[in-house]
Specification:
The complex is a heterodimer of chains A (492) and B (95). Chain A has 492 residues and is of the alpha/beta class. Chain A contains 15 helices and 11 strands. Chain B is flat. Classes of the chains: A alpha/beta (492), B mainly alpha (95). At the A-B interface, helix 9, helix 10, helix 11, helix 12 and helix 13 of A face helix 1 and helix 2 of B.
Chain lengths: 492, 95
């Protein structure tokens, strides 16, 4: 029998339908892989008993022919998603041993459709980071290594556990979240596919909040098709999230293989940065050539406010975070550090419970919202955000259906290599992805090539609101041309 | 714009995060690095531009003003660090 962990999600689904193997065999194979890969630190909590029970339930459904679209498919869940009765921490000490008495909407839809939970995945603390180094459980190690080197690399962040687990074959897909690039940048760093849906497409209910106007859940998986399959189950209207949109969820998989002939694809000149590595430039051109060969029409476009997206983000996101994270006070759940009076208890709890990056962002957010600075910082940033969104709207109004850009300014870097002296160095990782969150648009990262050291590089496609299907069709063209990217050596 | 040590302490207090004397200089430096980074927003002409309040053009839905949940005190308190008789316990608030 073939190694069940090397299958794609679609292959596994079809194999289960044809009864080539049982759901319990598929789950056991992945549980064994998870156990062997503990050195990657991708999982912060393994739930093998629950996984086996869910897989047996899936087998029972296969026997009676009533399984949902994800019946028996083993998945990993980012630790930002509340899972009923299963510890959920956002990888922060301040949540301690928090065990939610409820289930997030997105994960409840996955279980509704028959998926199996293998466990909870590592991420940057409260999803604040681009390398998965801020997690209270320690960094995740990228399954990819540079040629002739055993230096440990970061998987990107914040969804570092999700992408490392998928890339290493520990699960067939995973949930992730994206506030400034946390799905697309790590997907690119590990050679897998990640979709950040349009704001409002997936419910945020039951997901630990970071910046509510930017946060959006989405899938990461081995292929574009697998990502589309997961997306159909994750998306949908939820009355419990007032920003969730009541639009019918299409069968995204039908977009795979659809012709892109005549589609107008924009190439934004502002994404051509000074000092951009030549291999990124080459990759971008290659992607454009592939789309052109498939019949798409490429046009030069301008998004003039691009350079202001990252600074505006670093006002809006910390501001919202400072407000969202005010709830962690040591009273109702999570860590409590005693203090003489209640105010001391709050201050001690938050000083010890939050890591350095989270503390810094809460303080920045507090400052830009404080009396006398609100107009100069926060209000101005929200106006800049309007201009960023208008840039995209102007292009879409001229008939542009999607925009092609690099996903990241570099390949994966070493653990401990960036952001030590200056936090801004780490923030620059999101330079190509953050505009999409600011404008609420969908974006997909698809692996497209390698750098000189053999590490995967990704391209990003940005779409019109609620036109994820276009991104799947275009992403498939790139995937067909570039092939799939799996770590060359299983060293872990 | 940049912050001094006193402002750094004031922000930490507003955010209810205890800061040791030895941490102030470092935090001040980090906050100022970020403020320097966002300074470039000042060059954008935002005259007459509406601040964004929602990325999707939608009116927030309202649900009927009725009770939809409740009678789950045990679940609500299940993660609390200290409770007594279905109350959250906190240190003395009034001397």
């Amino acid at each position: 029998m073939t190694d069940l962990t090397s299958l794609t999600l679609a292959e596994a689904r079809d194999g289960l339908a044809k009864k080539s193997f049982k759901a319990i065999e598929l789950t056991d194979a992945h549980l064994a892989a998870v156990e062997q890969a503990r050195s990657l630190n991708a999982f912060v909590l393994e739930t093998p008993e629950q996984a086996r029970a869910m897989a047996q339930g899936a087998d029972a459904k296969i026997a009676t022919g009533e399984g949902g679209p994800l019946n028996g498919i083993p998945l990993g869940i980012k630790d930002l998603f509340a899972t009923k009765g299963v510890r959920t921490t956002a990888c922060s000490k301040i949540l301690g041993n928090f065990v939610p008495p409820y289930e997030s909407t997105v994960t409840s839809q996955l279980w509704r459709d028959g998926a199996v939970m293998l466990g909870k995945l590592n991420n940057d603390e409260f999803a604040m980071g681009s390398s998965n180094e801020t997690s209270c459980f320690g960094p995740v190690v990228n399954p990819w290594r540079r040629a002739n080197s055993d230096a440990k690399l970061v998987p990107g962040g914040s969804s570092g556990g999700s992408v490392a687990a998928v890339s290493a074959g520990l699960c067939l897909g995973a949930t992730a979240t994206d506030t400034g690039g946390s799905i697309r940048q790590p997907a690119a760093f590990t050679g897998i596919v990640g979709l950040k849906p349009t704001y409002g497409r997936c419910s945020r209910w039951g997901i630990v909040a970071f910046a509510s106007s930017l946060d959006q859940a989405g899938p990461v998986a081995k292929t574009v098709r697998d990502t589309a399959i997961l997306m159909r189950s994750m998306a949908g209207h939820d009355p419990k999230d007032t920003t969730s949109v009541d639009i019918v969820v299409p069968d995204y998989e039908k977009a795979i293989g659809k012709s892109v002939k005549g589609m107008k694809i924009g190439i934004p000149k502002e994404y051509r940065l000074d000092g951009m590595p030549p291999e990124i430039e080459k990759l971008w051109q290659q992607g454009a050539d592939w789309l052109k060969a498939a019949g798409a029409e490429l046009v030069d476009i301008s998004l003039p406010h691009t350079k202001y997206a990252l600074p505006a983000y670093y006002i809006v996101a910390p501001a919202e975070a400072s407000s969202n994270l005010a709830r962690y006070d040591g009273v109702r759940y999570g860590l409590r550090v005693p203090g003489r009076a209640i105010g001391d208890m709050y201050e001690n709890t938050r000083a010890e419970g939050f890591g350095a990056e989270v503390r810094r962002r809460i303080m920045i957010g507090t400052y830009v919202l404080s009396a006398g600075y609100y107009d100069a910082y926060y209000l101005r940033a929200q106006k800049v955000r309007t201009l960023i969104k208008k840039d995209f709207e102007d292009c879409f109004a001229q008939g542009v259906q999607a925009i092609l850009t690099p996903a990241t300014p570099s390949a994966a870097f070493g653990i401990g290599e960036k952001g030590q002296a200056d936090p801004v160095e780490m923030y620059l990782n999101d330079i190509f992805t953050v505009t999409v969150n600011m404008a609420g648009l969908p974006g997909i990262a698809v692996p497209a090539g390698s750098d000189a050291q053999g590490l995967p590089l990704g391209l990003q496609l940005i779409g019109r609101p609620f036109e994820e299907e276009t991104l799947f069709s275009l992403g498939e063209v790139i995937e067909q041309a570039a092939g799939r990217f799996t770590p060359p050596v299983k060293w872990w | 714009m940049s912050v001094d040590a006193a402002t750094t302490r004031r922000i930490a207090h507003l955010a209810r995060i205890a800061v040791k004397d030895s941490e102030v200089a470092h935090l001040q430096g980090e906050i100022n690095a970020m403020l320097a980074f966002v300074e470039q927003l000042q060059e954008v002409n935002v005259e007459g531009v509406e601040p964004m309040t929602s990325v999707t053009p939608m009116a927030m839905k309202k649900r009927a003003d009725v009770v939809t949940d409740g009678e789950i005190a045990d679940a609500v308190l299940s993660n609390a660090p200290a409770t007594e008789d279905h109350f959250f316990l906190v240190p003395k608030v009034v001397e």
